[in-house]
Structure to design on (92 residues):
């Protein structure tokens, strides 16, 4: 990535919406509240946001093997209700 990338090949927010399958509103929300939840962006003059295609692709590949949230992790032998004191740290 040492060479300059032509501006025409940079991704816009509309491209990112299509690639990530999120709405434009969600992407703006994530940019303001959780920027780590999106690929690193390039700040252009003015308010324009652009993403380098190779950076977005690498970001997607690194996240592909990870669970999207804690709720996707398998839960085994989980009882109902609040855990007891001894159960939180492995039990006695």
């Amino acid at each position: 990535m040492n060479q300059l990338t032509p501006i025409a090949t940079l991704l816009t927010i509309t491209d990112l919406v299509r690639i990530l399958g999120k709405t434009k509103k969600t992407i703006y929300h994530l940019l303001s509240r959780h920027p780590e939840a999106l690929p690193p962006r390039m700040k252009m003059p003015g308010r324009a946001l652009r993403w380098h295609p190779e950076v977005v692709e690498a970001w997607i590949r690194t996240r592909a093997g990870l669970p999207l949230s804690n709720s996707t992790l398998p839960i085994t032998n989980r009882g109902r209700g609040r855990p007891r004191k001894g159960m939180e740290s492995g039990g006695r």
In short: The CA atoms of residues 17 and 23 lie 6 Å apart.
